[in-house]
Write a structure and sequence with these properties.
Elements (H helix, E strand, L loop, with lengths): L6 H4 L4 E5 L3 H13 L3 E5 L2 H10 L4 E5 L7 H9 L9 E5 L4 H9 L4 E4 L4 H27 L3 E5 L5 E4 L1 H11 L3 H10 L1 H4 L1 E6 L3 E12 L2 E10 L2 E3 L8 H11 L4 H8 L3 H15 L4 H9 L2 E3 L1
Parallel strand pairs: 1-2, 1-3, 3-4, 4-5
Antiparallel strand pairs: 6-7, 6-10, 8-9, 9-10, 11-12
């Protein structure tokens, strides 16, 4: 049961890691998850769970809160502190129903919890929802990087709550060892000026633009790299972060259905976003909107 998984065999299906020291629970969950079409990994303790992550990053984790050695709360904290793994949703399984333990699970980074003895239909329904939501969020955020931009989310205190892989690379390149402190202060300054610049190696500049609120007390910034002699001529258009994503894919020639698949929404929702984009840009056609998107950066 603890044999290391073959990553190539896991690529076609969503993968769930079950972490529990009780063999009966492992067997029951493995059978139920396999019947739902998941590929299942198992671990008897936190150490084995970390080994599984090193081999294949799962799409979701069912995690026992109380285990020998490192408990589930500490393991979840470690997963969330590791950037390549932090996006994976963790659902706690616990016999603990006191408010203190429930709050501890959420504080450590869990997205939900189920109480033992487990009700399998409930476990499967909750897990499917969180895996679906995490996948849609990850695809949307990765799409920003694919479109040639990076993304950063600031919390209500101006601290970095999340940043895409591309944004992380650019900030590290611009600020080096001081990326955490100086980079954060630089990003916060966009809330007053709307747009800020930082020097990059090789005669380039990093541009951060404030895109407005992306959630409760959160702000989204979009980052891109331009030559040092480039003047940004982006019109002051109050596009939402989602509208910006839709416009970026439109500029790449994607159809509404393509954009819907990439961003995890319906074609009808894409069409509604485009209606708002056209209105804000003052255009009536896709080609006109694409032309504006293509000239956001113009040589000086």
């Amino acid at each position: 049961m603890t044999q290391p998984p073959d990553p190539t065999a896991l690529s076609a299906r969503r993968v769930i890691l079950v972490v529990d020291d009780a063999l009966d629970t492992l067997r029951m969950l493995c059978d139920a998850l396999a019947a739902e079409g998941y590929a299942v990994l198992v671990a008897r303790d936190a150490e084995e769970a970390l080994q599984r992550f090193e081999i294949a990053v799962p799409d979701g984790v069912l995690l026992d809160a109380v285990m020998p050695g490192m408990d589930g709360f500490a393991l979840c904290l470690q997963l969330k502190a590791t950037p390549p793994w932090s996006h994976v949703p963790v659902v706690f399984m616990t016999g603990l129903s006191e408010t203190e333990q429930i709050l501890q699970g959420f504080a450590s980074g869990g997205v939900d919890y189920v109480v033992k003895p487990l009700r399998i239909p409930e476990v499967l329904a909750r897990l499917a929802t969180h895996v679906r939501n995490a996948q849609a969020t990850r695809l949307a955020r990765e799409a920003v990087d694919v479109a040639g931009m990076g993304a950063v989310v600031l919390d209500g205190q101006g601290r970095v709550a999340w940043r895409s892989p591309q944004a992380t690379r650019w900030l590290d390149s611009a600020f080096g060892a001081d990326a955490a402190e100086q980079g954060s202060a630089w990003l916060q300054s966009t809330q007053g000026s709307g747009e800020v610049f930082a020097a990059l190696p090789g005669g380039r500049r990093l541009v951060a633009r404030h895109m407005g609120q992306s959630g409760f007390s959160e702000a989204m910034l979009l980052l891109r790299v331009v030559p040092a002699d480039t003047v940004l001529r982006q019109p002051d258009v109050p596009l939402t972060p989602r509208e910006t994503e839709v416009l970026s894919w439109l500029a790449k020639g994607k159809t509404n259905r393509d954009i819907a698949d990439i961003l995890g929404m319906s074609p009808r929702t894409v069409n509604k976003h485009l209606e708002h984009i056209f209105e804000k840009l003052g255009v009536e056609t896709r080609s006109a909107a694409t032309a504006i998107a293509g000239h956001l950066l113009a040589p000086s």
